[in-house]
Design goal:
ChsH2_Znr; OB-fold domain-containing protein; 124 residues; 1 helix; single chain; NA-bd_OB-fold; 3-stranded antiparallel β-sheet; binds zinc ion; OB fold (Dihydrolipoamide Acetyltransferase, E2P); Thioester_dehydratase-like
């Protein structure tokens, strides 16, 4: 039995690996995981390992009580492969988050589940 794309994606994350899909028919990268290419409809998307680098497209700080963990952010990140994903940027104060900032993906484990978050990319 073949796992669904979403199930495969999560299983890889749980093992610490971040994968996105690539369509060999039209040469687009695909995210979120799916069975058919949203660009051309081809099946048989291939799993690839993204570089992990990307740019913040939008950034929102969500207020939360300190005892619940404090403020956090929700960010849309454009990976350099050309796909957009929702995540968060860690390791920065809320006001440091900026649209256009360069970030790098990291897989963390949270409650036994793998999760992609982003850290500010080191300046070259
Ligand atoms: Zn395609």
């Amino acid at each position: 039995m073949q796992l669904s794309a979403q199930t495969h994606y999560q299983a890889e994350l749980d093992a610490g690996r971040f994968g996105i899909q690539h369509c060999t028919a039209c040469n687009h990268h695909v995210f979120t995981p799916r069975e058919l290419c949203p660009h051309c409809g081809a099946a048989g998307l291939k799993w690839v390992r993204p570089a992990g680098t990307g740019t913040v497209y939008s950034y929102t700080t969500i207020s939360r009580k300190a005892e619940a963990g404090g403020d956090y952010n929700v960010a849309l990140i454009d990976l350099d492969e050309g796909v957009r994903m929702m995540s968060r940027v860690e390791g920065i104060a809320p006001e440091q988050g900026q649209i256009g900032m360069r970030v790098k993906a990291q897989v963390i484990q949270h409650n036994g589940k793998g999760l992609v978050v982003f850290q500010p990319a080191q300046k070259a």
